[in-house]
Design a protein that fits this description.
272 residues, mainly beta, Phosphorylase Kinase, domain 1, 2 domains, 6-stranded mixed β-sheet, 5% helix
């Protein structure tokens, strides 16, 4: 690997993007995510950063002792990228107890060199973790007004192997009222992997499948299930794509067939 033979071991402290700047006096400790604590990892398109997904505490708030900040200690060598995740919370100051609800969190880690063929190692359990190649991901050129990327993680049905990657886009959901979610527009979930992804995904209903063209490739549209959902799936010969519209709350307005098609036809690779 050019340029990696002379790479010295480098330790980097990186703060979780999006959680704010935690106070410098926080008591950072190993996060204790465990052997299966990482849900998965992917590279950026250029391979110079790694995104790790895991289940953790709520986003950091300096005034709430139940929230959690995360950062990573990273050690790079010519053959490995070793990552240890640390966590810290504000002092409780005698505050009350916290619930144990899990929250999907991501940790974005910059590298001094592209990951290339190096192993990614979770230090606390000394385990090599599979990495999805982010250069294969497509990006939407169209989203409904107010929509944004809301989450990402390894895709089903094989999240452990990280052979596919799933990302969700949606608009802002209204806050719950008396503990109940408020219905809104259904978001979209795009799972992308190898061409056999289409065979691995279970059918969502018995309704007839309609065929559509998605950028020169034959796509199948299906709807059904309970609560009602819709799916568009296709392959470009090298990659498989499954686009789902799955309600997150009872009464969510189902995404139209036209919305799925417009989103799918606007997808393109970053380098194209």
């Amino acid at each position: 690997m050019p340029g990696l033979r002379t790479l010295a071991s480098v330790s980097l402290l990186l703060v979780l993007a999006g959680c704010g700047a935690p106070a410098s006096d926080l008591d950072w400790q190993p996060a204790g995510l465990g052997r299966s604590g990482w849900e998965g990892a992917r590279t950026s398109a250029d391979g110079r950063s790694i995104l790790i997904t895991f289940t953790g505490g709520p986003q950091f708030d300096a005034d709430d002792h139940c929230t959690v900040a995360y950062r990573a200690v990273v050690n790079e060598t010519p053959s490995e990228v070793r990552v240890e995740v640390l966590s810290a919370s504000p002092s409780s100051w005698g505050g009350g107890s916290c619930n144990d609800m899990g929250h999907v969190r991501t940790l974005d880690i910059d590298l001094t060199q592209p990951l290339a063929g190096r192993r990614l190692v979770q230090v606390d359990v000394e385990r090599e973790r599979p990495v999805f190649d982010g250069s294969r991901l497509v990006e939407p050129s169209w989203l409904p007004d107010g929509w944004e990327l809301t989450s990402e993680r390894p895709g089903y049905p094989d999240p452990e192997s990280v052979t596919s990657w799933a990302r969700a886009w949606a608009g802002q959901r209204p806050p719950p009222v008396r503990g109940r979610c408020i219905s809104t527009d259904t978001g979209l979930l795009l799972t992308q992997g190898s061409t056999d992804l289409l065979d691995k995904q279970r059918s969502i209903g018995d309704n007839p499948v309609r065929a559509h063209d998605v950028n020169g490739h034959l796509a199948s549209y299906q709807e059904g299930g309970q609560p009602p959902s819709a799916r568009l799936s296709w392959s470009d010969g090298e990659r498989g794509f499954v686009l789902d519209a799955v309600p997150g709350c009872e009464g969510d307005a189902p995404a139209s067939e036209e919305k799925l098609l417009r989103f799918a036809r606007g997808l393109s690779s970053p380098h194209s």
